[in-house]
UniProtKB/TrEMBL annotation:
Keywords of this entry: Membrane, Transmembrane, Transmembrane helix
Record's protein name: DUF1275 domain-containing protein
Originating organism: Sphingobacterium chuzhouense
Transmembrane segments: 20-39, 59-80, 92-112, 118-138, 181-201, 207-228
Source superkingdom: Bacteria
Length: 248
């Protein structure tokens, strides 16, 4: 799901990646909104709040909005930088560091009542940083095919592609469009499901609800690691059997 890149990546790898990380994003977004009263996956909204702050001469709001945008940007920068650095040695695990950082950041916010006494500004910055990392990570891995932290572009692309299906008649073109639309539906559905689950559980668990995306990411890393070990084991078995046949 994470380790395949470029030509080794298939459409179904992107579908699984989109389903997982869009659900994570949806959960983080609703928990950030309910607990911190801030958008954690929507940079566009913070630009609107910045403009509102200037208009109302509420410079605290304007400064906070700029800070949130900056942290989202820094998250994207850090994710790509760590992937570039680690891919030189072990390309299969270039995703490990940004995902590990995402897990740590979400866990810190989840237990922030023990660490930061629920100071909203730094917690919001951490979540914006986390979502910036995730957006850069999934964009890098999928070759800019999948983005999971905002829906505006997805609905735009899906509207265009559904319209194109009315005019494109070749089977190859229609097949490509159907796959693209299905991928958009998966992302939107994952974001929606994550939001609903997060909202329902937030009543009881508040910021601890973020432990759900933490658990999902840990399981995803474990699954990818196990799958890689299985492929290595299968290659060794084939190599041993080939050597035996050569000796015979």
């Amino acid at each position: 799901m994470f380790r395949h890149r470029d030509r080794g990546r298939t459409y179904y790898h992107n579908v699984r990646l989109a389903a997982l990380l869009s659900t994570v994003a949806g959960t983080v977004n609703i928990v950030g909104l309910l607990s911190l009263k801030t958008l954690t996956t929507n940079v566009t909204g913070h630009f609107a709040y910045f403009s509102e702050g200037l208009f109302l001469k509420n410079y605290t709001l304007a400064f906070t909005s700029v800070l949130y945008v900056l942290f989202f940007f820094v998250g994207a920068f850090v994710a790509n930088s760590t992937m570039e650095l680690t891919s030189k040695n072990k390309s299969h695990f270039s995703y490990m560091l940004p995902i590990s950082l995402e897990i740590i950041c979400l866990a810190v916010v989840a237990f922030s009542d023990l660490l930061l006494s629920n100071i909203l500004l730094p917690l919001g910055c951490i979540l914006l940083f986390t979502m910036g990392m995730q957006n850069a990570l999934v964009t890098k891995i999928s070759g800019s095919v999948v983005r999971t932290t905002h829906l505006t572009g997805l609905f735009t692309d899906m509207g265009i592609e559904l319209s194109q299906m009315l005019f494109y008649k070749k089977d190859s073109e229609r097949s490509r469009l159907k796959k693209n639309v299905f991928l958009r539906v998966i992302i939107i559905s994952g974001f929606f499901i994550g939001g609903v689950i997060g909202a329902l559980l937030h009543k009881e668990y508040h910021l601890r609800t973020l432990l759900i995306p933490v658990g999902m990411l840990i399981l995803a890393i474990y699954y990818d690691r196990m799958l890689l070990n299985y492929y290595h084991w299968r290659k060794k078995i084939k190599l041993v059997s080939r050597k035996k046949r050569m000796k015979q």
